[in-house]
Specification:
Length: 235
């Protein structure tokens, strides 16, 4: 996933005050304006105002807003993970994946039409038409972007002297990775890159190796994957 600094946010948007944004008039307006709401969430998370974004999400959910969908929730999950707020990221992630094992009648979306995590966030503000494609599972269920974002949050927010030495977060990240496949969500090369890089970053190239081999079996292995593994073993 790109860092928040790389996302295409609007520099002209002034974040409204908490009182203004959470007013009844604001909630009623945003409850049906998907594009405006998406832009607000992108700007709030880019500015580090995830507290306000979370309160806005909850207010809209209570209002049964039609504008709140998976894309909006993924933006906030990304914001939490980027800021290192893994406690609330976990709460949001658990809510987003509570029905992940229930598939729609049409089955999973073909891998060829599933966006990668970077593609999901790259377009920035404005129209979201055509960006997400067909949902792979039921409405508002988590997709590969949700899982990839959470895996990145678990494995990337570490310093060299504060690695995941007990392996707890590594275990959790690997379990989430295999949930993607278990729930019939298409795996892409970015999901593999995210977890392999994260495991190597945490000093566990031995655990990344099995995923690297699986990546090759699926025909997704590339030069970047080789480079990551080589650096992982060297470091």
């Amino acid at each position: 996933l790109p860092s928040t600094q790389q996302l295409n946010y609007s520099d002209e948007y002034d974040i409204p005050s908490r009182t203004e944004l959470l007013s009844l008039a604001s909630i009623e307006r945003l409850s049906t304006r998907k594009n405006e709401l998406t832009k607000i969430f992108l700007d709030l998370c880019e500015a580090g105002a995830t507290d306000l974004a979370y309160d806005l999400l909850n207010a809209l959910v209570d209002h049964k807003a039609s504008s709140v969908d998976l894309y909006v929730k993924n933006i906030l999950l990304h914001g939490f993970c980027e800021s290192g707020d893994m406690e609330r990221a976990t709460i949001l992630f658990q809510d987003m994946t509570k029905n992940a094992d229930r598939k729609g009648s049409s089955g999973p979306r073909p891998a060829s039409t599933a966006p990668s995590a970077s593609e999901y966030f790259k377009a920035g503000s404005g129209s979201t038409s055509g960006r997400i494609g067909d949902r792979p599972l039921l409405k508002d269920q988590a997709d590969s972007v949700t899982y990839t974002t959470m895996i990145r949050g678990l494995l990337y927010n570490v310093e060299k002297d504060d690695l995941n030495r007990d392996g707890t977060e590594c275990d959790r990240a690997i379990a989430l990775f295999y949930d993607i496949k278990r729930f019939g969500i298409p795996l892409d090369s970015e999901a593999f890159h995210t977890i392999i890089t994260g495991l190597c970053k945490n000093g566990r190239p031995d655990r990344a190796w099995a995923l690297f081999e699986e990546m090759g079996e699926l025909g997704l292995r590339d030069t970047a994957a080789y480079t990551t593994m080589i650096n992982g073993f060297i470091n």
